[in-house]
């Protein structure tokens, strides 16, 4: 009985600490008045991730440049707003 409790506590601690390391920042991409582009930079380490949120109209394009070949980039789209 005591071993089960200890096992549960260790598992819970492992889950809590592993998810806390996979944190990142959330950035709302904004364009300065009169500008049609924006540039953001940063550094991601380990299992961290950053989320950049933006809205585009039909025909607009997005360009993403990442300097690490081992990094993955995902683009999720939402339907009409």
TrEMBL record:
Keywords associated with the record: Signal
Cleavable signal peptide: 1-22
Listed name of the protein: Protein YcgK
Organism: Escherichia coli
